[in-house]
Write a structure and sequence with these properties.
CATH topology of the largest domain: N-(1-d-carboxylethyl)-l-norvaline Dehydrogenase, domain 2
Organism: Chthoniobacter flavus Ellin428
Distance between the termini: 57 Å
Low-confidence stretches: 1-5, 284-292, 307-319, 321-362, 385-408, 420-444, 446-451
Radius of gyration: 28 Å
Helix content: 40-55%
Number of strands: 8
CATH architecture of the largest domain: Orthogonal Bundle
Largest sheet: 8 strands, mixed
Protein name: 6-phosphogluconate dehydrogenase NAD-binding
Pfam family, one: NAD_binding_11
Oligomer: single chain
GO molecular function, one term: NADP binding
CATH class of the largest domain: Mainly Alpha
Number of domains: 2
InterPro entries: 6-PGluconate_DH-like_C_sf (IPR008927), 6PGD_dom2 (IPR013328), 6PGDH_NADP-bd (IPR006115), HIBADH-like_NADP-bd (IPR029154), HIBADH-related_NP60_sf (IPR051265), NAD(P)-bd_dom_sf (IPR036291)
Length: 453
Amino acid sequence: MSRKARKNVGVIGLGIIGTRVAAGLRAGGFQVYVWNRSAKPAPNFLGSPAEIAESSEVIQIFVADAQALFDVIEAMAEAITPKHVIICSSTVGPEAVLEAAQLVQARGAQFLDAPFTGSKVAAEKKQLVYYVGGDEAAFVRVRPILEATSKSIVRMGEVGHASTIKVVTNMISAVTSQVLAEALAIVQKAGLEPETLTAAIEQNACRSGVIDLKLPKMMSGDYDPHFSLKHMFKDVQLGIHMANALDIEIPATTVTAGVMYGALNQGWGEMDYSVLFKNYTPSEVFDELPALEHVLAQRAGAQPPALPSESATFSEPVPEPISASALVVAEPTFTVLPEPISVTAEPVTTLNGSPAREMVPHEEASRIIEAVLAHVSSQRRELGVVMHENRHPAPKTVEHAAEEKPAAALVNDVEKDAEAKPAETTQPEGDESKSEGKPVNFVRRWFVGRSQS
C-alpha cells in the first residue's frame, strides 16, 4: 500500500493499445503499474490484478472480451475499495459493461464506461478519442489521466451508452473497409491504376478516416495490425447481437461478418482488418491436373497408367491410355440445392464473373466432372483446405463476449428466418432488382462459396 499516490495509475491489458497508453501515461508524469495475462517485459509489471489494485486507485482496463473483463474484476475484487475508479476501455458491448459496473459498484468503487477510438498510430501519438459514460464526479477525478493519451473526450451520459456508440461506429468502419476492398478490386480488374481511385476519393464526399488509413494498406499488401481482424470481427458480432435484441435487420453488417469469418478461417485473424482485400488477390495455384484417364482409373480402383516423371524424355515409352468409356464408375450423386434455380432467370457466371458456356450434362460428362473434382479436393486437403461439400464448420474460437453467437450461427439464423417467410408477391423472372432476400443469398454465396474454398 505504500506505493499508492495521487498520480499512480494501473493499466491492465498490454495489447496494441494498452502498451501505448501505458507509455503515454508515463510520458505524462504518471507512475504506471501494469499487468497482462501473459507476462511482458514492461516497467512496473506486477504479478496480478490484485497487486495493481493495491498500487493504484485509478485502473484503466484494455482487455479483449467480456469474459476477460469479468476475470480481471474478480481477481482484484478483494483489493477494490470505495477509493477506486475503474475505467473500462475495452469494447465488450453495453450488456457486459453494465454487469461489470455492478460488480465494481458492489465493492463501493466507481466505474466509468470509456471505450476509445483510434488505432496504433493514434495511441502512439496520444491522439485517442474517449467516449465516456458514467458518474460526473468520477469523470472529473480521472479526466487528467484520460487527457494524457487523447486529443478529445466525448461525454456519453450513463454507463452503457458509450459502449453502444463504440460498437456501432466500429460497424461503420468494418463495412466501409469491406466496400473499399470491393471498389479497389473492381478498379484493378478493370485495368485502372489503384492510384486513380486514391486521387478520386480525395475529392469525393465518400472520403473518411477509415479509407485514408486502410486504402494504402490494401494497395501495398501491408497488413501489419493497427486493429486486428479478430477483434473487429468480435465487435461486429456485438453489433449483430445488439441488432437482434432490438429486432433490427442489418444486412450490410451481416454480409461483412460472413466475409470476416471466411478471412478468419484463412488464418488472417492477427492481421489488420484491411486484410479483407486479400480475398481479391490471387489465391494459391494448385498443381496441374493429371491426365483424365489417370484420375478415372483411380476412381474405378484399376491400376492407373504411370505418368511421365519430371526427368522423363521423349524417348521413354508412354503407356497406352485407358479409355474412360471402358471403366466402371459408380453413379454420381447429386446434392439438392437449397433453393430452386431458374435456368432463364439470369446467365450463369464463373467465379470471376465472366459468362460460363452452356453445357448439356450427360452420363460420361458427369463421370469426368466428378473425377476431376475428386482430384482437386484431394490436393486441397493436402494443403489444409476442405471442399465445400465436406465442410460445415463450427465457428473458430475467437475472442468474443461470453454469450455472443458466432457469425456463422447468426447468418444461419437469418437464412432460416428468410426461408420461413414466403415472399408475398411473385416477381417476374429476371427481375432481380425487386426480389426479396438478396442480402441473405449474398451471405450464402460468400460464406459457403468463397470463404470455404
